Structure formats: C-alpha cells, structure tokens
UniProtKB/TrEMBL annotation:
<comment type="function">
    <text>Involved in efficient integration of the N-module into mitochondrial respiratory chain complex I.</text>
</comment>
<dbReference type="InterPro" id="IPR045293">
    <property type="entry name" value="Complex1_LYR_LYRM2"/>
</dbReference>
<dbReference type="GO" id="GO:0005739">
    <property type="term" value="C:mitochondrion"/>
</dbReference>
<keyword id="KW-0496">Mitochondrion</keyword>
<protein>
    <recommendedName>
        <fullName>LYR motif-containing protein 2</fullName>
    </recommendedName>
</protein>
<dbReference type="Pfam" id="PF05347">
    <property type="entry name" value="Complex1_LYR"/>
</dbReference>
<feature type="domain" description="Complex 1 LYR protein">
    <location>
        <begin position="18"/>
        <end position="75"/>
    </location>
</feature>
<comment type="similarity">
    <text>Belongs to the complex I LYR family.</text>
</comment>
<dbReference type="InterPro" id="IPR008011">
    <property type="entry name" value="Complex1_LYR_dom"/>
</dbReference>
<keyword id="KW-0809">Transit peptide</keyword>
Amino acid sequence: MSKVPKAALSLKQFMLRQEVLKLYRDIFRTIRQVPDKNSQLELRSWARHDFHTNRHQSDEVAIKMLLQHGRRSLTELKTSLQLSGVSEGK
C-alpha cells in the first residue's frame, strides 16, 4: 500500500501552490506598511476576497495568470508606498 495520500499534489501543483503562498505573504507584509489603518483593513479585505474567490482554481494557466495579476498589483502597491515616502523596511 502506498504511503502517498490520494490527494497528493503533483510537483507542478506543489510549486504553483508555493508561489501563491509566497505572493499572499508578500502582499500582507506590504499592506502592514500602509500608514492608514482603514486603508490597511480595506486592502486586507480585498486581498483575502481575491484569494478566497480563486481558492479552488485548478487550471494551471489560469493560476499563472492570476499570479501575474497579483504580482502586478503588489508592485503597484509597493510603488505607491515608495512615492508616498513610506520606507519598505528592507
């Protein structure tokens, strides 16, 4: 009997999952740098909603497109923070 669970992820799925989790963490780390608490709450809500909405996405191409969109949004947020004078902390 195999020790691998039936719902085990393929290597590609595992790697994509890691990319998604990294993006999620990066987004929330960046949101912490937003000085306005109300804006932080709104951004957190937006990010959680987007990730939750696409939680069950299984199409590899769609996931890659969503990752690209998320990275672009993160870059825009970081750029906005830099332009507003908020230091990145790194």
